[in-house]
Amino acid sequence: MERVRRGFGSGSAMAAVVLLALVFIMVPEASATRFIVGGNKGWTTNVNYTIWAQGMHFYNGDWLFFVYDRNQQNILEVNKTDYEACNSDHPLHNWTTGAGRDVVPLNVTRRYYFLSGKGFCYSGMKLAIQVETPPPPPKAAPVVSEGSAPLAPVFRSQFVLPAIFAIGAVWDAFLRFC
Ligand SMILES: *[C@@H]1O[C@H](CO)[C@@H](O)[C@H](O)[C@H]1NC(C)=O
Ligand SMILES: *[C@@H]1O[C@H](CO)[C@@H](O)[C@H](O)[C@H]1NC(C)=O
Ligand SMILES: *[C@@H]1O[C@H](CO)[C@@H](O)[C@H](O)[C@H]1NC(C)=O
Ligand SMILES: *[C@@H]1O[C@H](CO)[C@@H](O)[C@H](O)[C@H]1NC(C)=O
């Protein structure tokens, strides 16, 4: 490893550090999803959100993205009773920021209930979802635990090292051009 680094010079060593940082940032995020509520219709009237959410899986760590007319709608999280009654008098959480684009992190494994206040709930602007525990990561991901030591060198040599070589070569070429 030391010999490899000296061969490439400090530029590629820096590139390798950047690449490793990217690998660690990107791996956990690859499994999180940001759902645009209602798809291209957004958060509005005349969408049945029960049907929209049918068959979809929401996992802990995902986000809901509400896109709506900020002059008319809002996003209130309520409990089951108030969801069923379209009661917005005591929301558990007011997710409305005023921009017409609000992100709700689904960071607890439980049922979530949302509705639009000001009467729009009665015309169907309500959403109930179950947030589930995320499925186990794919087998290719590096797993560090007792007895799995061979996995780490395999991961490094098959993926990270070739990537560092590739980036290092590009970086060296780039430096020669400057
Ligand atoms: C929801 O909140 C209302 C008002 O605070 C309360 O009366 C009701 O029992 C709650 N329902 C549930 C299921 O917690
Ligand atoms: C929710 O928060 C927004 C932004 O702070 C505010 O304008 C609005 O009145 C609140 N709505 C409710 C029902 O609390
Ligand atoms: C979930 O996210 C909300 C809003 O960002 C935050 O207030 C809350 O502490 C988080 N809960 C957990 C268990 O991380
Ligand atoms: C949405 O569709 C479901 C399933 O077909 C139905 O039970 C529900 O009444 C509909 N909701 C509205 C507000 O139309």
TrEMBL record:
Top-level lineage group: Eukaryota
Pfam families: Cu_bind_like
GO molecular function, one term: electron transfer activity
Signal is among the record's keywords: yes
Keywords, alphabetical: Disulfide bond, Glycoprotein, Signal
InterPro entries noted in UniProt: Cupredoxin (IPR008972), Phytocyanin-like (IPR039391), Phytocyanin_dom (IPR003245), TAT_signal (IPR006311)
One GO CC annotation: plasma membrane
Phytocyanin domain mapped to chain residues: 33-133
Signal sequence coordinates: 1-32
Similarity comment: Belongs to the early nodulin-like (ENODL) family.
Function summary: May act as a carbohydrate transporter.
Protein's UniProt name: Putative nitrite reductase, copper-type, cupredoxin
